[in-house]
Design a protein that fits this description.
single chain, 33 strands, 0% helix, globular
Length: 362
């Protein structure tokens, strides 16, 4: 056992969040500080049709209204219970960015002139929403919807695609991705005036994975052909996070203290979960196959090991979070400020359901 790798203890199985009536699958896409979750519920494959869904802090499910079309999905929820995502306007499958009030009422957000496709990725504490949408030029542009509902196209890097993925609570910093004229993907950040900063100039390709409330972003950047974990500071500096082993590695999440979670190859073909401190030093959380997906303010990491959901506290103690009865796979994907953990698990019929673990777990 490596230093810092603690023995595992077992917790009780997750609570099934279920599906909407007539659906068979569900997934959580976001959870707010109070434990309210949003995501989607879907019917039988291969005819997957997403239905926007909300679960309250007690795990009770409700449908979010659509715009008259067959599909919708919720991607984020703020601490007031306002959710954002997308919905089809009609049977033509025109996809529109939308916002849902806490009572579930839906509002369509305006698209770019001549655009026929848009989605909302995140909402800040001031009510500003970000996402992406197609313009009359056929390109997908990163977008910001101001609190009054007006839409603004953010600057790009000269390519045909960009997407705003996160916004800080104060609404002053937006993080996301954009490609350059050669089609290479870059992690980027925009300030409140919409000015873009390429966070990895001179690097072939970079991929952002998460942004904290201070505008610090983590992800990966190409180094000698492999993606390696990085953190982009608020001032734009790029810090390589420790990962000396050969092969790829990624930082998947960052907390407000700048600590990150993710993983990478420990041995060839095996991705192991890891945590990085503010200085970029790595702690291997398990030498078995797995990944860290999220990290809270205390340094608790959630993810999976050997295809079963897991949690590691700040001391590195590993808790097995379990799966639904009969399920062979589960994954903890989000941890809220109140300690509630959300994720997915297969059930005995091999269908994935949204699940959660209350704070008392482990």
């Amino acid at each position: 056992m490596l230093p810092g790798v603690a023995a595992a203890k077992t917790a009780i199985a997750p609570i099934d969040l279920g599906t909407l009536p007539g659906d068979l699958f569900s997934a959580v896409n976001a959870i707010n500080d109070a434990g309210v979750m949003v995501g989607s519920s879907t019917p039988l494959e291969p005819q997957i049709k997403y239905h926007a869904t909300r679960w309250d802090a007690q795990g009770r499910i409700s449908a979010l209204a659509g715009l008259g079309g067959e599909q919708s999905q919720a991607n984020d929820v703020d601490d007031h219970g306002v959710a954002v995502g997308w919905a089809h306007k009609d049977t033509s499958w025109n996809q529109t960015a939308v916002k849902w009030a806490p009572d579930g009422a839906v509002t369509a957000l305006p698209s770019l002139p001549g655009g026929e496709y848009a989605y909302a990725s995140a909402i800040g504490g001031t009510g500003v929403v970000v996402g992406a949408g197609k313009g009359a030029d056929g390109k997908v542009h990163p977008l910001r919807w101001n609190a009054d509902g007006t839409v603004v196209a953010l600057a790009g890097l000269g390519g045909d695609y960009g997407s705003a993925l996160w916004i800080t609570r104060d609404g002053r910093t937006i993080g996301g991705t954009a490609n350059d004229a050669a089609g290479r993907n870059h992690a980027v950040r925009w300030n409140s005036a919409g000015v873009i900063t390429d966070l990895s100039p001179g690097i072939t390709e970079s991929t952002p994975e998460d942004m904290n409330d201070n505008g610090v972003i983590v992800g990966s950047a190409r180094l000698d052909g492999d993606p390696k974990p990085v953190r982009w500071e608020r001032d734009g500096r790029m810090t390589w996070l420790e990962y000396p082993e050969s092969g790829p590695a990624w930082a998947r999440a960052v907390n407000n203290a700048g600590a990150a979670a993710g993983g990478g190859y420990q041995v060839f073909g095996t991705t192991s979960p890891a945590r990085w401190d503010r200085a970029g030093a790595r702690t291997t959380l398990s030498t078995e196959r797995g990944l860290g997906n999220d990290i809270d303010r205390t340094g608790t990491v959630v993810g999976l090991v050997n295809e079963i959901a897991a949690k590691w506290d700040a001391a590195g103690t590993h808790t097995v979070l379990g799966a639904l009865p009969g399920g062979t796979y589960s994954n903890a994907t989000h941890i809220a400020a109140n300690g509630v953990i959300a994720g997915i698990s297969y059930n005995e019929e091999g269908r994935w359901h949204a699940v959660y673990w209350p704070k008392a777990q482990g």
